[in-house]
Design goal:
heterodimer, A: mainly alpha, Cytochrome Bc1 Complex, Chain D, domain 2, B: alpha/beta, FAD/NAD(P)-binding domain, five-stranded parallel sheet, 11 helices, 27 strands, 26% strand
Chain lengths: 101, 425
């Protein structure tokens, strides 16, 4: 039975309390925290006045976020929000949005 | 073989990955099953959509909601202030039904059997689920204000703390009030739904009075010892914009009412108003207690912050205002939407037999209008902390507006359009 080794391995991981593997959908989940304002999957409501992030190149989103975080880019709110995410999380978010249509 | 070689483990992982891409759900088996969502507000509507979207239709979702349309509490204070209409804050459930394939049932859930995994409907009949989501909002604790227990009293002294008919009725009371009258709003002890909401409402009623009934007053009877959200910004607005109109009274808990004379009874005092707007203390919607979920302070549901699952009833997830909040977490529509996404991700993993995400993040933003155009915000980001098993506010992140401004007035409306679409379109 081919499944058994996998189950045994998972059991071993759980039993040893090993570091949890990152959820494969982590980027998706993190990006969803932005969707309240920037639209589902980064597609903001057209004409409402907030930026769409879907399809924006990763580097561009990351640069904006890092400028918000450092305070270089003035903002009404994003300078406060960006400080709540780690650089790794922002990378995952920017990667996810870049891949959206 | 008890121990798998690393190479075999990787191979197994790759096979799982290939299977996942086939089904569009990374990381293992496909999520399937039936999720019943009770309550179509900010939490429930969001999770209904996200379960369907993220499972690519693999999970069946039934949303049970007692109202025919979604009516937003955020922005409803502008209806009370007279600059927006009910139409502006009403959104159809058709998007969830037609675009996302959510089955919508207009009904009330009267019982949950967590062991048999079934719910009972008020109209009769029952429904089985693999996972249940309760997003029941709040119920008012009229026992705390005995004079308000009767339906007749409740029709005269309004809360307007659930957007709908009471929003319209409170607006009508304000329009009918003579110039020179007094509007009083009573705020319960925290935690309550929407911490800045009562102060925003006081501002918007004062703005209406200033323009239309300049001899009238607004009195805030706050059971708390200070303004519960954005205190400096609200107090500055009251001093700058509404001097002589808004009278703020802290430590003024309403204990009862005398309905015939529109009088609020405080501990040592009474206060008579022309329009008396009492927000009673509240607790998780009663289906939570009826379902046997563990409550904290006999009011709010205790949840596991990795999944929003009830701490004592497996398979039942709870969202939004009904939940005992993590530190500094407000009861807000924005936060309920974030709860919905956290729980959607967790439920899909559980239905696929996978571990839930161990590092969830939620964030909040609340915009408050201090007049019809100027807005102040508060925002925060909360990351899961394994040591306390809570989502904890990130130190140094979040904050409030530097000053009230019109730009954020425009952003607040853009926020509303986007979050409504994120839930319902």
């Amino acid at each position: 039975m081919k499944l058994l080794p996998t189950i045994a391995a998972l059991g071993l991981l759980a039993a040893t309390g090993a570091v949890h593997a990152a959820d494969p959908n982590l980027g998706r989940n993190l990006a969803a925290t932005c969707a309240n304002c920037h639209g589902t999957n980064g597609n903001a409501v057209k004409g409402a006045g907030l930026d769409s992030l879907a399809g924006v190149p990763k580097e561009k989103t990351l640069q904006k976020l890092s400028e918000f975080k450092s305070g270089d880019k003035p903002a009404s709110i994003m300078h406060q929000i960006s400080k709540g995410y780690t650089d790794e999380q922002m990378d995952l978010i920017a990667t996810y949005f870049a891949a959206q249509k | 073989m008890m121990l798998m070689k690393r190479r075999d483990f990787l191979k197994a992982g790759a096979a799982a990955g290939a299977m996942a891409s086939l089904y569009g759900c990374a990381g293992g088996g496909k999520a399937s099953g039936h999720v019943v969502v009770v309550g179509g507000g900010y939490g429930g509507a969001t999770i209904a959509k996200y379960l369907r979207m993220w499972s690519e239709g693999g999970v069946q979702v039934t949303l049970i909601e007692r109202n025919p349309t979604f009516i937003s509490c955020p922005i409803s204070n502008l209806v009370i202030g007279g600059t927006k209409t009910m139409e502006d804050i009403t959104v159809s459930y058709d998007g969830l039904k037609n675009k996302w394939g959510v089955r919508i049932v207009q009904d009330d859930v009267v019982a949950v059997d967590g062991a048999k995994k079934t719910i009972s409907l008020k109209a009769g009949g029952s429904m089985s689920y693999d996972r249940l989501v309760l997003s029941p909002g709040v119920d008012f604790m009229y026992d705390e204000i005995p004079g308000l227990k009767s339906a007749d009293a409740q029709s005269k002294i309004l809360h307007a703390w659930k957007a709908g008919p009471q929003t319209v009725a409170l607006r009508q009371q304000l329009e009918s009030m003579k110039d020179g009258g007094v509007y009083a709003i009573a705020i319960p002890k925290a935690p309550y739904r929407c911490p800045p909401g009562p102060y925003e409402r006081a501002c918007l009623v004062a703005d209406y009075f200033k323009k239309n009934k300049p001899k009238s007053k607004v009195v805030i009877l706050d059971a708390n010892e200070d303004v519960m959200s954005k205190p400096a910004l609200f107090k500055k607005a009251w001093a700058d914009l509404y001097k002589g109109i808004i009278d703020y009274r802290n430590n003024s808990e309403v204990k009862d009412v005398e309905v015939a004379t529109n009088t609020a009874v405080l501990e040592f005092d009474k206060f008579k108003a022309d329009v008396l707007n009492i927000i009673p203390p509240h607790r998780a919607g009663k289906i939570a207690a009826q379902s046997g979920l563990k409550l904290i302070n006999n009011r709010w549901v205790d949840v596991n912050w990795l999944s929003m699952e009830s701490s004592n009833t497996p398979g039942v997830h709870v969202l939004g205002d009904a939940v005992f909040p993590a530190p500094t977490m407000p009861k807000s529509g924005h936060m309920a939407n974030q709860h919905g996404k956290l729980a959607a991700a967790a439920i899909l993993n559980l239905l696929a037999g996978q571990e839930v995400n161990q590092t969830p993040v939620v964030m909040n933003t609340c915009y408050s209008f201090v007049d019809s155009k100027n807005v102040i915000h508060v925002t925060s980001v909360h990351q899961y902390d394994a040591a306390t098993r809570l989502v904890q506010p990130v130190k140094g992140a979040g904050g409030v507006s530097a000053a009230r401004n019109e730009l954020e007035g425009k952003v607040a409306m853009a926020w509303a359009k986007n979050i409504w679409a994120d839930m319902l379109a």
